[in-house]
């Protein structure tokens, strides 16, 4: 147990702590007295306090200590700006930042990358310098996609990671509990605050048999998505087990875990096995493999453990699937797909086939696709549809280039894009069709919601294995089934594709390619973080002011919001995302989507000081600049939707003091607390009707407030009449300290100084 094995070859002195899992589980076992699933072993193995933590699947909120954090460049900006304001010298756990989301696919890898580096220079410079200062590993643009790089360098069995991207679960292919989170959670863990997660339920997927022919790991998750639907995994970890598991490649398991995000799962997970060992060895981490072998008993489920739900799939009978259009859970086996295309009037002509991405760009995927492409080329064929290849990392690109596959793809008309997200996240300057034109594309990516790839709502995007995508581009037709149908070669003769073959791992080893990693210097304290004061995309944060110890008196109601008020209503996405590193600029979208209960209109509210109507952000800033705190009043489930932390940062930045609602969505409520705002619940929901946008509200008795107590409010109506109502709050002792300090990070900062 006293072995020291580094978590990654890229970080010195940061060790894997399998002993903590062992020790935690000893405590947890004595309390629960029941066989444990693998998901439970790893999750409970990371409990902050195994002795006192309440543990009930689907019920308790667990306080956890993840081993590391990963951020992609779009979400990293605000996360790092916030971390900086905590005033800590280094991140509390090893962290990495990956530049993959901001590179647009236009012409091809090299030129697209050069253009992106130019356009996004200030963002990249900021991230590079901030990473150097705070001890964060920085992966430059061109290095590859976050999840592939994590698999190659940082994922390890039994560890726990959070990442600010929904497909973080990809690392489950190496037996890691890896969860996608919002920026606020990432900041907490970087600052040393435990991470809170509702104790996940566990869905067991039993795999029996062995795949053959055209069936691939992708087809397992396409099938599971069809069974569970896009909501079926919510609140659960999906754990695979059974004899079929050992027949899958490690990278294939990663594909399955990656796409588990499509069914809403907290994460997905495979037990440690020899395939993982082989992948660790191939990526220069045999020491981790041998350490994992010693701790295998904690990296596999207990016999007799119980799943909340159980699914069985016989791999010997599993057909290749095509999922879509418009949703990843509409699963059709290839044998029935042509008929579905005709029946549903989906455009049969295949415009574009896209392979690769974080989901499916392993050596195995690429070599099977290259096998198909070579066979077509031998019959004199070129791709009929446009064909793009997105390598998941520089290492994948360099290795498949060395082994001749890039040449194979280019010979049949393929275009190799940059090692980046590109069309998968809509970074695609698509030229072959007009917006609004009905058309079909097929990808080996994971997500196919309307408009995701090319912003054209009429594009029918289907998802399948890279094998099916590659075969179909030679037919140029969605009704082509390579298992049964033939194509005509250039000699006029019909031929059928043979079953694709590939290698799980490159026989000559991986070629690392260009070095695209910036390791942090040993001492980054003298590094200057590059943020231009004239930038409109980035702005350093100024810590929010601590509470002055007084009650909040006569705070005008900024807006009484009616009906649904999601984080999208509070902080809109789309074009605003450009400003996600600039709080002042992005705050111009604050609550502009909320419906004013007094008028039924959006973004038009009364300025109680001037008596004039104005836009919500304008009126809010005017109050703030006059030193007047304000309050938002909301209905049920205020702040539901994505966990976007801007929805809490913006009202605080604009001078908000509290949000008073019938009920809150939990994550947003916590985010408000973290930023030093008071989330208050009407004790009596009907009191919502007593308030209008012309009222002022006083929050009383704060000085003697103790968590658990009600808080008294006084409403002052326009005519001068007043009435008192009660509110409740879920603020606990620790969170009350956040409020007093002005924010959770302020508190961390003062603790660090003390
Ligand atoms: Fe990027 Fe698409 Fe994966 S956006 S991280 S390649 S899901």
Give an overview of the whole structure.
This is Aconitate hydratase, mitochondrial. Its EC number is 4.2.1.-. Residues 491-525 are annotated as: Disordered. One of its GO terms (cellular component) is cytosol. It contains 23 helices and 30 strands. The strands form eight sheets. Strands 22-25-26-27-30-29-28 form a seven-stranded mixed β-barrel. Helix 3 (73-85) packs across helix 5, helix 3 (73-85) packs across helix 7 and helix 8 (217-228) runs parallel beside helix 9. It is an alpha/beta fold and 754 residues long. Helix content is 29%, strand content 18%. The protein has three domains: 18-316, Aconitase, domain 3 (2-Layer Sandwich), CATH 3.30.499.10; 333-481, Aconitase, domain 3 (2-Layer Sandwich); 552-753, Aconitase, domain 4 (Alpha-Beta Barrel). Bound molecules: FE3-S4 cluster. Residues 100, 145-147, 165, 167, 357-358, 421, 424-425, 446 line the site of FE3-S4 cluster (F3S).
The proportion of residues in beta strands is 15-25%
Q: Termini distance? A: 34 Å
Residue-averaged pLDDT, rounded?
Answer: 96
Classified by CATH, the class of the largest domain is: Alpha Beta
Write the topology of this structure.
Blueprint: H1 18-32, H2 38-44, E1 61-64, E2 68-72, H3 73-85, E3 95-98, H4 109-119, H5 121-134, E4 137-139, H6 146-153, E5 160-163, E6 177-180, H7 183-190, E7 195-198, E8 201-208, H8 217-228, E9 236-241, H9 250-259, E10 267-269, H10 274-282, H11 286-294, E11 309-314, E12 321-323, E13 331-333, H12 334-343, E14 350-356, H13 363-378, E15 386-390, H14 394-402, H15 405-411, E16 415-416, E17 439-443, E18 459-463, H16 466-475, E19 487-488, E20 494-495, E21 517-518, E22 552-560, H17 567-570, H18 583-586, E23 605-606, E24 613-614, H19 616-625, E25 630-634, H20 646-653, E26 656-661, H21 666-674, E27 678-682, E28 696-700, E29 711-716, E30 722-728, H22 733-741, H23 744-753
Parallel strand pairs: 2-3, 2-5, 3-4, 5-6, 8-9, 8-11, 9-10, 14-15, 14-17, 15-16, 17-18, 22-25, 25-26, 26-27
Antiparallel strand pairs: 1-7, 4-21, 12-13, 19-20, 22-28, 23-24, 27-30, 28-29, 29-30
Helix pairs in contact: 3-5, 3-7, 8-9, 10-11, 13-15, 13-16, 20-21, 22-23
The chain binds FE3-S4 cluster (F3S).
The site of FE3-S4 cluster has 12 residues, from α6.
